[in-house]
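Work Package 3 (structural annotation) set out to generate three-dimensional models for the target panel prioritized at the project kickoff. During this period the team completed the workflow that converts sequence records into discrete structure tokens, so that structures can be stored uniformly alongside our sequence database. As a representative example, we reproduce one entry of 229 residues exactly as it appears in the project archive.
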Amino acid sequence: MRRFILTAVVALLVVTSGCVGLITGDTVAFEASEGTVSDSALDSTGYETDNTSERTITRNVSFFGQERTIRIVNQVARYTKDGDLANATGNETLKRAVEAGRIDSTSVPGLSQFVVLSSPGAEVAGQALNPAATWSNERVLEQLADQTGQLNNVEQDGSRTVESLGDSREVTAFTGTTDVQGREVDVRVHVASFEHEGDVIIAVGVHPERLDEEENIDELVGGIEHSGN
């Protein structure tokens, strides 16, 4: 009798959440609301919108002992800021080449980057179906490598708090390296991950270590806009 009552309660929770497919076996879609950066934060930091896109992942999950297929629809927004490769690497040879007119410029489009990923919490009857909520910072960087570029030699280097979407959020800093036009560049990486209005918000900033962008990254984190589900 107790098992029947529990099953009935779970079924009721699933029906009221609009996820009947978890009972019938149909594929159920969970879609996140867009997470973007305010125009005022972009204007004051010099970052520009590079692209926005949807990223859909289909996965099988175990839901109360039954295998079900769900579709996770993530929203990704990428912002960039141009920079100078000579300054980013401290390469005096490049600087002299520009000054001597041997090359026109060492400007690199999108040298600094900021990415916001909004992923649906996908929680039904107390069970979280989307693993993004529990991703480690290292896993976050792996998942967003197609947006930030491949990062190597990543090591944690402190953390701080930033006000974003009405609460204090932890931002973890890392050092690392990446390849820019065939040259290895030391970078700083900033990662924030938190839940807001039913979605998981993940923000990642990457910039050359020699270019001081930390205050700008904090302003971009603080300027995140998200309406929730």
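The two ends are 36 Å apart (CA to CA).
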